[in-house]
Amino acid sequence: MSRTRTALRRAGAVTALTAAALLAAAGVASAHVTVHSDSYAKGAADGVLTFRVPNEEDNASTTKVQVFLPTDHPVLGVLVHPQDGWTAQVTNTKLKKPIKTDDGTITDAVSEITFSGGKIAPGQYEDFNVAFGQLPDDTDQLAFKALQTYSGGKVIRWIEEAHGGQEPENPAPVLKLTAKAAEEGDSSTASPTDSKSAAGTRSTTSAGDSTARGLGIAGLVVGVLGLAAAEFAVAGARSTGNRAE
Fold first, then answer.
1. What pLDDT does residue 93 have?
2. What pLDDT score does 182 carry?
3. Which of 84, 135, 185, 191 is the most buried (most CB within 10 A)?
4. 13 backbone dihedrals φ, ψ, rounded to 5°
């Protein structure tokens, strides 16, 4: 009888620990600072980028967020949407290579936006909206490195870029750009219909990735539960055999 109880305790402990670890891993994966938007083509004009900042700490609030815009592929005409409780400080940088546009030559661009004065409590998130005049047309994606500061002084550096298809521990928010729209008179901006279609595809892909991740985690949990059930069955059979003897 004691062997049966020991087996049951062991199987129950393994199941609980494994399930907890899997759920914790899923929580960490969803706590990254990310950038959200419609699907934009290279060189797209007049749009909005949303930087979503979740609080992943239990006993501290996020009190400052710094977003760094790439200067090797600059984003032009940046405007920050007012955020209740937050103050935005914008830093401009002189470009190494001026950019010629229909409105003239651009010699500087925004390189950093710092949001401070507000608070993101544990278990909450904040969206920071940034409008742009034009995206670069010479890159497939834009990485926006970010620093997240907590009330206790801890700083999380979301600055790592993925290599070899593996997601780093602290990934930088990345915006992927689609191919330029081939339209007469304006090849830099996708039509509203194309943008909506691409946005729908992006949303579906994102949802599919999230669903796949959820199903994978659920499958692992079910597998662990199955192993536990098998252990229970073996323990029960041993117990029945002992009583029969």
1. 97
2. 62
3. 135
4. -65, -45
